[in-house]
């Protein structure tokens, strides 16, 4: 069996990882622009190292990325050739409001995305738009402290009101914040947060998270008011935690680790702070400042569907002596001895996707949408740019099989699937181009060298067949 009629097939990218054109057509500087590749990247994205502008000692891959800003027509035509019925992309906030706090939006930025969405519709591709995929105008970071400030809600509200009205009829599927739980793990990249030495970092992170949760509810309210056809989703960096052993302490550790991430979606989907989260914050001495109307707003404006990324499951142990962790991953966890891993140390677990889908389905009883899943790998192109990426096909085929089982055997309600990095792009975690995910090869290396020429990999025609058969044929033939 395949998937239901109208199942949305496609791929996913983020503005800061593909567009480039960081200073084009009035666009302002964003937090994601000033994050370099190299050893300083991790301390910067985690808010431990202050780095608010460019310097001559670093290379900044997002400045040009893969130049989709100028090449989107070529890229969307390739997506259409694969048969995409949806394309997940994000809007760069600083293209619409370059500083973030202006009274009027930047018309050139608005027109750019209007043209892009119309190009999608020309091929019958439905845009799935992430409103904020880690982007935060640097002016808002420097003047207001980014999401630590409640004033951010008003700036985000204006941003949302402008784009919902401008793109009414062009976009009906929206996500408010990409991987909203990333604020706990990479707070500068995820929310523009840099910490001073004297600050209580947990207090800052959870207060900022509250502001984002309120902003998400505000966005949901506006979207439904502007166009009742709009469907709004939240977005979680997902991956079920397994207990390292059946020792009860390990089982509880895994439950706690899952809850740390589910907390955000509990609020966005159920409309209230869960009791376990309130108790955790109380134990840690974190006091969230709220306004009287906040809880009512959260309750009345919950999301329509749950979207999530899945790359790997995770493991939790209560034993501090068990310290071998997965590498090169913002969500590093204890290693699972039963799983193989990618070249970047991400453990490969297709069944974990089915387990994660069931957990989310059981917890929320709302439609699910897998908006990121893929394998980062080193590709070796021939002289024509062709890559025989059987390893990618094998990874995706196994995950799509698990996805089918969750739908057909477990009854999970799934709206669609967009593989991550359908075209090679800059890695969010490492800033590398050599960590490739795409069906389309882009001639560019980690230091910005290359022609940016696009070429089809073997997986391009494989995914084309998968979409054409609505997921029935996953074979590598």
UniProtKB/TrEMBL annotation:
<comment type="similarity">
    <text>Belongs to the glycosyl hydrolase 1 family.</text>
</comment>
<dbReference type="GO" id="GO:0005829">
    <property type="term" value="C:cytosol"/>
</dbReference>
<protein>
    <submittedName>
        <fullName>6-phospho-beta-glucosidase</fullName>
    </submittedName>
</protein>
<feature type="active site" description="Nucleophile">
    <location>
        <position position="372"/>
    </location>
</feature>
<dbReference type="InterPro" id="IPR017853">
    <property type="entry name" value="GH"/>
</dbReference>
<dbReference type="InterPro" id="IPR018120">
    <property type="entry name" value="Glyco_hydro_1_AS"/>
</dbReference>
<dbReference type="GO" id="GO:0016052">
    <property type="term" value="P:carbohydrate catabolic process"/>
</dbReference>
<dbReference type="InterPro" id="IPR001360">
    <property type="entry name" value="Glyco_hydro_1"/>
</dbReference>
<keyword id="KW-0326">Glycosidase</keyword>
<keyword id="KW-0378">Hydrolase</keyword>
<dbReference type="InterPro" id="IPR033132">
    <property type="entry name" value="GH_1_N_CS"/>
</dbReference>
<dbReference type="GO" id="GO:0008422">
    <property type="term" value="F:beta-glucosidase activity"/>
</dbReference>
<dbReference type="Pfam" id="PF00232">
    <property type="entry name" value="Glyco_hydro_1"/>
</dbReference>
């Amino acid at each position: 069996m395949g998937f239901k009629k109208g199942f949305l097939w496609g791929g996913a990218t983020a503005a800061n990882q593909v567009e480039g054109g960081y200073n084009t057509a009035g666009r302002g500087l964003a937090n994601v622009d000033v994050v370099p590749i190299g050893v300083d990247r991790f301390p910067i994205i985690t808010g431990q190292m202050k780095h608010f502008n460019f310097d001559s000692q670093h290379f900044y891959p997002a400045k040009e990325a893969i130049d989709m800003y100028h090449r989107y027509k070529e890229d969307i035509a390739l997506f259409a050739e694969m048969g995409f019925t949806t394309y997940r992309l994000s809007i760069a906030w600083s293209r619409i409001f370059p500083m973030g706090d202006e009274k009027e939006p930047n018309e050139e930025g608005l027109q750019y995305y209007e043209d892009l969405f119309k190009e999608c519709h020309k091929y019958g591709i439905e845009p799935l738009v992430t409103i904020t995929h880690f982007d935060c105008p640097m002016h808002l970071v420097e003047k207001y402290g980014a999401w630590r400030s409640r004033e951010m809600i008003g700036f985000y509200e204006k941003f949302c009101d402008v784009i919902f009205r401008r793109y009414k009829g062009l976009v009906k599927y929206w996500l408010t914040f990409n991987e909203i739980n990333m604020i706990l793990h990479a707070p500068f990249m995820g929310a523009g947060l840099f910490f001073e030495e004297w600050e209580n970092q947990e207090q800052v992170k959870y207060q900022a998270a509250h502001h984002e949760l309120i902003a998400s509810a505000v966005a949901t309210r506006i979207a439904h008011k502007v166009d009742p056809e709009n469907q709004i989703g939240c977005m979680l960096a997902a991956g079920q935690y397994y207990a390292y052993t059946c020792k009860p302490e390990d089982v509880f550790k895994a439950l706690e680790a899952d809850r740390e991430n589910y907390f955000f979606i509990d609020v966005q989907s159920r409309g209230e702070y869960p009791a376990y989260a309130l108790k955790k914050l109380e134990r840690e001495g974190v006091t969230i400042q709220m306004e009287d109307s906040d809880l009512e707003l959260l309750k009345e404006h919950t999301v329509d569907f749950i979207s999530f990324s899945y790359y790997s499951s995770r493991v939790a142990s209560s034993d501090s002596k068990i310290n071998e962790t997965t590498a090169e991953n913002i969500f590093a966890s204890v290693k699972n001895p039963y799983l193989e891993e990618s070249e970047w140390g991400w453990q490969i677990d297709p069944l974990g996707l089915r387990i994660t889908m069931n957990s989310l389905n059981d917890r929320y009883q709302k439609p699910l949408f897998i908006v990121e899943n893929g394998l980062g790998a080193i590709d070796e192109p021939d002289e024509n740019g062709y890559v025989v990426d059987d390893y990618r096909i094998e990874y995706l085929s196994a995950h799509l099989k698990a996805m089918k089982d969750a739908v057909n055997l477990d009854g999970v309600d799934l709206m669609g699937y967009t593989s991550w990095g359908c075209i090679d792009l800059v890695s969010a975690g490492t800033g590398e181009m050599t960590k490739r995910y795409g069906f389309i090869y882009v001639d560019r290396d980690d230091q910005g060298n290359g022609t940016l020429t696009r070429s089809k990999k073997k997986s391009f025609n494989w995914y084309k067949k998968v979409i054409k058969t609505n997921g029935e044929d996953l074979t590598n033939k």
